[in-house]
# Entry
Amino acid sequence: MLNDKLKNHNIILASGSPRRHQFFKDLGLDFEVRLKTIKEDYPNRLVHFEISDYLAQLKSLPYLNELKDNDILVTSDTIVWHNNIALGKPRDNDEAFAIIKSLSDATHEVITSVCIRTKTFQKTVNAVTKVTFKAFTDKEIWHYINTCAPLDKAGAYGIQEWIGQIGVVKIEGSYFNVMGMPTHLVYETLNYIADHC
# Structure
């Protein structure tokens, strides 16, 4: 449905995440993946969604000079916010263990920001989802780390994987947001562009 409205546009998804690729396929959208390497640094003064908003917008900057009139660029960033600290992707298995251990028997927030740009339009949307985990044993944490791939995920876990299946006690907000894309907000913004841009 939305794809028909956007048939005169070219959607560029600037993400290497297979989960985000699948979301766009599930939304029925035709898109191309275009990747550029960027250093994901942000000012220390930023907190909470300010961080993911900033990084989503930062990721869009290298593409601006090459955008054509009918291009729609989508960039995004996900962080886990816990104890007033932004948790990104772990550097190694030991850091992954420490992160998951800190999330055990506690509630954290997953924040995903999406920056959507054309040559004449720019909007950044974000969603915050609260996730509560059960108390994990060290054995459970290591089992997850050794059988899945936590190093490419903010907060060292994927909610759709084993640890989410056995560990999520409560979730408040968008489940898809925790997976890396607030699809309802992306759909809404793309609809706006289709109707107004």
